[in-house]
Amino acid sequence: MISLAQDHHVHSTYSDDARSTLAENVAAASARGVAVLRLVDHVRVSTTWVPEMLSAVAELVIPEGLTVETGVEAKILDASGALDLPPGLATHPGLGRVLIADHQFPGPAGPLSPRVVRDSLTTPERARDAVDTLVGATVGAMSQVDRGQLAHLFSILPKIGLTEDDVTDEHLSAIAAAALATGTLVEVNEKWACPSPRAVRALSDAGVHLVVSTDSHHSDDVGAYTRVPAILQAAREG
């Protein structure tokens, strides 16, 4: 049973698109009864503020009953699984997790916009190749970091005109095997309502460590779940 009294993906004002401070997120988590909170912000290869962010987290006053962990979120850059991550950060001892995200499509030579990929998927064969590429890149990315976490797995698929129905059992087995081999967590994401109950069930049956997250960009949303419980329930009943 996955506890909903946790939130493993919460953004602060260190991310350009988030509105709440680290302290506001901690206060919101405590008020909602969250037991484990992971503070996460977006990085690129050029990001320099991660040590500052980690120091700021270390200085927070943490309410009793709450454990605060850290992370950064980096997008998959290409089909090999390279990540948009500052040098040396993948093994930084003070960093909790590196969240691996499919913000854009991992093309052979670099990230592609979802619209470009969607327009190119003119045959079933090309659609199958796209899913193969995405899964291969995701598997490759897990080997790039010591402490990974798959963020909103498969959220890119609707953006390129596909669904998780296009993901085969073999694809799920490959992701599960890589997650187990690398100790990568897989989150069930509230914001994007993914992965699907079928994927959650397959990953859970394989022994993958699943966690829940809101992908909050505002403290009002920290620890607040409406879509995740339905995904977990459907996975149990499937």
UniProtKB/TrEMBL annotation:
Residues 6-78 form the Polymerase/histidinol phosphatase N-terminal domain. It comes from the Bacteria. Keywords: Hydrolase. InterPro entries: PHP_phosphatase (IPR050243), Pol/His_phosphatase_N (IPR003141), Pol/histidinol_Pase-like (IPR016195). One of its GO terms (molecular function) is zinc ion binding. The keyword Hydrolase applies. SUPFAM superfamilies: PHP domain-like (SSF89550). The keyword Hydrolase applies. This is Putative hydrolase.
